[in-house]
Amino acid sequence: MLRLTERNPGGYLSAAEIPLSRLYICMAGVFFFAAMIWVYTLMKYSVFKIHWLMAALAFTKSTSLVFHSINYHFINTKGHTIEGWAVMYYITHLLKGALLFITLALIGTGWAFVKYILSDKEKKIFMIVIPLQVLANVAYIIIESTEEGSSEYYLWKEILFLVDLICCGAILFPVVWSVSAMNLEKLKLFRHYYVMIVCYIYFTRIIAILLKVTMPFQWQWCYEFLVEVSTLIFFVLTGYKFRPASNNPYLQLPQDEEDVEMDEVVTESGALEGISKVKKTSNGRERQKESTL
């Protein structure tokens, strides 16, 4: 009986995959450090629940990268995965994916920052995104455990790509709805957030893949590096924009009904130009305030 074992000088992985174990463990350390800084910041202020959810996402991302690194290490040294470590990676990867889209969608709706209740159409977005994220993670797990040349591999790869794009598109709707119902200061913030999400999706789903196709084979690990670095930058920018601060005008909730009433939506169309608002004063007289649009 003849047994043939093929491996590269650096291990069982290909030249493009050998650096991935070190890359993932290094990025795990960076995400963990960023998460600790974020928690330290939260401890100094009165914060919203969404801030702790953002911290949980950063820690879950770091943990997922640790298990991903361990998984690649055993594949490279032993030629196969260790079932326990692989299961832990799949679990944390699934949690990370669900937390990412839930957090982005909640921030996009303005939950906790500008309101505490989700509308019916926003709830429907979550009813769509969460099951799709479960399907996307199942597709990813099947791809990871299936031979690349099999028909199942390409089928689930196409499913993953399609479902991922649908999820990315779905989380943009809450941001658009929020932009259409905010005052000028919050409007500026959520416009920036919308642009950040679009740039992040465009880079990680399109630009990075195109770069991977054009790169030499031994440098294709740079695709994963670019994706992880862009994710880190996106996390840091989101945290900076929505950071807790005592004097942050973006995160100040209306204190009473009068504030809500006077929180007018500013548009660029000029459709409300010339409209005046009548409001009664404490002595019963009416005073008129001309629109400044």
TrEMBL record:
Residues 19-249 form the GOST seven transmembrane domain. Keywords: Membrane, Signal, Transmembrane, Transmembrane helix. One of its GO terms (cellular component) is Golgi apparatus. It is a multi-pass membrane protein. It is found in: Membrane. Its main location: membrane. It comes from the Eukaryota. InterPro entries: GOST_TM (IPR053937), GPR107/GPR108-like (IPR009637). PANTHER family: LUNG SEVEN TRANSMEMBRANE RECEPTOR, PROTEIN GPR108. This is G protein-coupled receptor 108.
